[in-house]
Amino acid sequence: MRIDIDKDVCIGAGQCALTAPDVFTQDDDGYGTVLPGREDGAGSPLVREAARACPVSAVTVTEPTA
């Protein structure tokens, strides 16, 4: 899986970091970011829930294509 955060859409609500703190954090400006080395979701079962929790849908989770 691949995780992306649209920095132009993110409002810094922090729901991603609250829902899946092993994958997401907030940067120095308060915007959501994926922790280094966790761009593939690292098997966290909460990644999709974190994407759903984003109030502005800035977090997207996609499956790799064959």
UniProtKB/TrEMBL annotation:
InterPro entries given in the database record: 3Fe4S_ferredoxin, 4Fe4S_Fe-S-bd, Fe-S_cluster_ET
Has UniProt tagged this entry with the keyword Transferase?
Answer: no
Q: Which cofactor does it need?
A: [3Fe-4S] cluster
What the protein does comes down to: Ferredoxins are iron-sulfur proteins that transfer electrons in a wide variety of metabolic reactions.
Q: Which organism is it from?
A: Streptomyces griseoviridis
Q: What is this protein called?
A: Ferredoxin
Cross-referenced PROSITE patterns: 4FE4S_FER_2
Q: Which residues form the 4Fe-4S ferredoxin-type domain?
A: 1-29
**One Gene Ontology term of the molecular function aspect:** 3 iron, 4 sulfur cluster binding
Note whether Cell inner membrane occurs among the keywords. Answer: no
Instruction: Provide the alphabetized UniProt keywords.
Output: 3Fe-4S, Electron transport, Iron, Iron-sulfur, Metal-binding, Transport
